[in-house]
Design goal:
Distance between the termini: 69 Å
Radius of gyration: 18 Å
Strand order of the largest sheet: 1-10-7-12-5-2
CATH superfamily: Alpha-ketoglutarate-dependent dioxygenase AlkB-like
Number of strands: 12
CATH class: Mainly Beta
CATH topology: Jelly Rolls
Order of helices and strands: EHEEEHEEEEEEEE
Bound molecules: N-[(3-hydroxypyridin-2-yl)carbonyl]glycine, fe (iii) ion
Number of domains: 1
Shape: globular
Number of helices: 2
Largest sheet: 6 strands, antiparallel
CATH architecture: Sandwich
Amino acid sequence: MAGGSPPVTVALPDGVVHLRHHLDETAQQDLVNRILHAIGEEFWFQPTTPRWNRPFSVRMSNLGTLGWVSDRRGYRYQPVHPESGLPWPAMPAALQELWREVAGHPALPEACLVNLYRGTARMGLHQDRDEHDLSAPVVSVSLGDTAMFRLGGTERNAPTRSFPLASGDVLVLGGPARLAFHGIDRILPGSSTLIPGGGRINLTLRRVGQPLAKVASTGS
Ligand code: MD6
Ligand code: FE
């Protein structure tokens, strides 16, 4: 289409899908209301790094039958809040519908990790590899302030690129990009008024799956 309007998407590595403004303003507002209501005050927690126990700059919560947590004992999925021991709030149906729409995977996600960024919060370059079922993608939803997302390859030292994730954007990391390194360099404070008190909420929908069955042993 020579002379046409500029492409809506730029080339991304295989397995990466960036759906800009996939959720309209109404859907974004509705989702934020539901999530903040479900989490309330009591289901936020302050993750800390394995071993050194240093606080992350983001606050976290989870929705669903499993939630991702990090503390000095390491990274893991568990069905309850790390301090209260209460089961995580349910995952809103709208998120399961979003997964069905974009994930291309038959099983539903058990976990939705909720990351809250305020001020100078950021997220270092990492891989999402605590799930047993790596055949399912991770589906991310951005709400509130725009973030600068950094995406690399499956080796930590591979070249990276960065691009903005705005409110309502959905990003899917699957297939050959499932284990791509990625992180958030910074958020652009004040770029959205969606979140009460400002900042950004990122949701990541994860299919955790079962540990691979142990090889059947005879006897005992
Ligand atoms: C964030 N996102 O956007 C952090 N992980 O705040 C992630 O860590 C992420 O966007 C897996 C797949 C997509 C993501
Ligand atoms: Fe991630």
